[in-house]
Amino acid sequence: MRLTVKLLNIAFFCAALPLFSSTGPDGELTKRTRYLMDTYCSVLAPVKGDMKTAAALDLALDRVEELDKKFSAFRPGGQVYEFNKNGTPITDPETLELVKRCLDMNVKSGGAFDITVTPLVRLWGFYGELPKKPKIPGKEEIAAAMKQIGPGSIELKDGRLIKLRASAEIDLGAGAKAYAVGEAMKSLKASGVKSAMVDLGGDLYAIGLYNGKAWKAGIKKPRGEGALGIIGMTDLSMSTSGDYERFYEIDGKRYCHIIDPVKGVPASELISVAIITPDATMANLLSTSVFVLGRDKGLKLIEKYPGTEAIIIRANGEITLTEGLKKLFSLKEKGGKK
Ligand code: AMP
Ligand code: MG
User: How many Cα atoms occupy the beta-carbon half-sphere of 93 within 13 Å?
Assistant: First the structure.
């Protein structure tokens, strides 16, 4: 059972943002922010003068910083960088675990999710600064890039990731941020923190209650002010994939950074997907997969993961909520439809 709401003239964008009021019995929130993984990472917790909790926030950010170095395809020194550039096998267990989850998602998503998509992302100009005068690549160029990709170009065996094709590269961008959010939260819990929110560029994770209530995350409207809706989050993570994050337009058509590896072109049926589940990494893997698959196939994929909820927004403004989300999400709309 799903709820589909047709909304006109709204929400051609959807991003998660933490919302909170600092008045209440738990007092003000202490917040620490660092620029990590190409975005701002904030950790928030009610502290009430407890310096141990404040120190725990710094520790959690240290953990994200460590993972930023580890998973980056662009930072010299990390194993992913060395693998891509020089073919050095990856042996770091944590990186291999993330790669394994990504390879599993490749199978589950029928190839929509693919960490070897790099040549296509590069061809469409989505690494580094966006092209000033973007051009649609030619059919031959797309076909050539598509020949370079596919999980068959790498092999994970006996504690090593190796290249089976010299040109193979991996891009963990669609899973690394949320993995880091999950790890930051583990670090906070290990420090004894019972209530906190981690926000890494819109990939969120909240534990416990704040002022006796679930933490709140807003789904922002891009055109016009305010939120499309609010989600109450307790021991839940939310990851969003959208065509607003990195994109350019050619002749009025938007091209975004999430590429359909099967078609060789940027995915375009959806403009935003938010996935809500306790498993942060899964939220991120699914948000990218569903973004590529589109609504109907995407919902079929989500159904394979019990306890996973989604908000899917199509380019025509149609919003689909999974059944379980109705308890967590309130849609702010003229007329107050819910
Ligand atoms: P996200 O914002 O989590 O959806 O991740 C998007 C990032 O994942 C992009 O910036 C690319 O680096 C990478 N990416 C693009 N297309 C795909 C795909 N089909 N499968 C896996 N990763 C992708
Ligand atoms: Mg993702």
Answer: 0
Could you write out the DSSP letters of every residue in 5-63? EE-SS--S---EEEE--S-STT-PEEEEEEEETTEEEEEEEE-TT-HHHHHHHHHHHHH
Residue 117's CATH number: 3.10.520.10
Compute, in angstroms, the gap from residue 47 CA to the centroid of ligand 1.
Answer: 36
Closest C-alpha residue for ligand 1 atom 3: 174
Structural domain harbouring 55? 1-338
What mean pLDDT comes out for the span 96-120? 98
CA torsion sign, 306 to 308 to 314 to 320?
positive
pLDDT tens column, 273-301: 999 999 999 999 999 999 999 999 999 99
Grouping H, G, I as helix, E, B as strand and the rest as coil, residue 157 is: strand
Which ranges of the chain would DSSP assign to H, the alpha helix?
51-71, 79-86, 93-108, 118-123, 139-148, 173-190, 280-293, 295-303
Per-residue pLDDT tens over the stretch 213-272: 899 888 766 555 567 788 999 999 999 898 888 899 999 999 999 999 999 999 999 998
Ligand 1: residues within 6 Å at CB? 113-115, 117, 121, 171, 173-174, 241, 245, 257-259, 261, 284, 287-288, 291-292
125 C-alpha vs ligand 2 centroid, how far in Å? 19
Into how many domains does the chain fold?
A: 1
Token representation of residue 24: 């209440």
What is the CA(212)–ligand 2 centre distance, in A?
A: 31
